């Protein structure tokens, strides 16, 4: 099958377009013919080697973490899906590879595609949807009447998280550039901070939750926005000891994570704030709950651009500019 392949870790390196063996389908696997694949900053970071200690993929391997397509075959123990079903997923770590014509996905990671979305719209959802769900519902326990600041509201995670937070009944503030103010307002943001004109930490206070994907400076400033008992959740790091334990990392890496996050954890604790790092996981059941929200038109996808499969490297370069509004998607069929 045709695929875009990493032959070696290299910062900014191009993916090779070539042939790879058809996926092996286990008893609990579903073989999917991929129609569209979403791109994420995570793809670039893995290509660059930033996650080698945590996700030790061995080149050559196929990149890609989001997909929508049609079931082509099912394993002998699969019960929830059948050939011809339209599905979408974020494959679990260790089994990624959506920049390809086919992928074998564990049944537990898969969900039926929302009926009211096209393939390319559906492919934009899994990673950002699950990230937002696990941050806001699981980690933060966000509820009606609370206040949340979502940084980078016009990005992939931000556009989804704003809508989910509003559905949960929260008051939502977000940061964005001047060009994207109207976009985030249309998604439901109550308070919009144009970071080119305002300093969010001087404007906001008394918040219950902050969700950030930005740099360490923004992480530090976000502490002043939160009230005692608040929660600071980062999807960009630094990783913390809880994450290291969940990943089953060895003693040395656990100590590295402890040291990397020591500063922010100490500052947060001194203010009575909880800090945590979130690295989302695949979960087909949660994705099915997200499907229900999309079919009820509570949440809608936000697409920036689509690229043909042959232009995967160009699409990845565009994602790396950080200027996309919502998600960037590849179309294969």
Automatic annotation (TrEMBL):
UniProt keyword annotation of Oxidoreductase present: yes
Alphabetical UniProt keywords: Oxidoreductase
SMART domains: PKS_ER
Residue ranges occupied by any Enoyl reductase (ER) domain in the UniProt entry: 12-330
Keyword Oxidoreductase part of the UniProt annotation: yes
Molecular functions (GO terms): oxidoreductase activity; zinc ion binding
InterPro entries named in the record: ADH-like_N (IPR013154), ER (IPR020843), GroES-like_sf (IPR011032), NAD(P)-bd_dom_sf (IPR036291), Quin_OxRdtase/zeta-crystal_CS (IPR002364), YIM1/Zinc_Alcohol_DH_Fams (IPR050700)
Alphabetical list of PANTHER family matching this protein: ALCOHOL DEHYDROGENASE RELATED, RETICULON-4-INTERACTING PROTEIN 1, MITOCHONDRIAL
Name of the protein: NADPH:quinone reductase-like Zn-dependent oxidoreductase
Originating species: Nitrospirillum iridis
């Amino acid at each position: 099958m045709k695929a875009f392949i990493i032959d070696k870790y290299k910062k900014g390196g191009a993916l090779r377009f070539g042939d790879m063996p058809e996926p092996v389908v286990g008893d609990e696997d579903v073989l999917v013919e991929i129609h569209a694949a979403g791109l994420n900053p995570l793809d670039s970071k893995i290509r660059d080697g930033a996650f080698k200690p945590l996700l030790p993929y061995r080149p050559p391997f196929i990149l890609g973490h989001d997909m929508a397509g049609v079931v082509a075959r099912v394993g002998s123990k699969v019960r929830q899906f059948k050939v011809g079903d339209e599905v979408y997923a974020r494959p679990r770590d260790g089994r990624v590879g959506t920049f390809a014509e086919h992928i074998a996905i564990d049944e537990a990671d898969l969900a039926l595609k929302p009926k009211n979305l096209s393939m390319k719209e559906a492919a934009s959802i899994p990673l950002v949807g699950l990230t937002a769900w696990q941050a806001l519902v699981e980690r933060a326990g966000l509820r009606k009447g609370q206040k949340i600041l979502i940084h980078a509201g016009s990005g992939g995670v931000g556009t989804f998280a704003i809508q989910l937070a509003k559905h949960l009944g929260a008051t939502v503030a977000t940061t964005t550039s001047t060009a994207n103010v109207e976009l985030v307002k249309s998604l439901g943001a109550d308070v919009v901070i144009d970071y080119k004109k305002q300093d969010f930490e001087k404007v906001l206070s008394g918040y219950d939750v902050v969700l950030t994907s930005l740099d360490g400076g923004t992480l530090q400033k976000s502490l002043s926005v939160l009230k005692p008992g608040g929660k600071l959740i980062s999807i960009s790091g630094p990783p913390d000891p809880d994450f290291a334990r969940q990943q089953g990392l060895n003693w040395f890496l656990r100590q590295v994570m402890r040291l990397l996050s020591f500063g922010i954890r100490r500052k947060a604790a001194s203010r009575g704030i909880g800090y945590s790092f979130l690295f989302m996981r695949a979960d087909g059941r949660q994705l099915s709950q997200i499907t229900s929200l999309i079919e009820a038109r509570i949440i809608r996808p936000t697409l920036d651009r689509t690229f043909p499969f042959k232009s995967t490297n160009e699409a990845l370069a565009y994602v790396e500019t950080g200027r996309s509004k919502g998600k960037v998607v590849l179309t294969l069929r």
